Amino acid sequence: MNTDIPFLDELRRELLDAGTRPAVHRRPVRYRPTGPLVALAAFVLVLAVAGALLFASERIRPDRTPEGPNPEVSTVDASVAGYLTQIADRSVVLRRDPFVVQAPSAEEPRFLPGALGDEVVLWPLAPGDERIETVVEWLNRRTTATADADGASMSPDPALPVVSLGFVAEDQSHIVLYGARDGALCIARIAPVGSGVGCGIDVTPRYHLDYGPVLVSASPSIGSVQIRVPEATSVVAIVTSDGDRRWQRAVSGYASFPVWLTEGSTIDVEAYGADGDLLGHWATELSP
Question: What is the value of pTM for the model shown?
Answer without folding.
Answer: 0.71
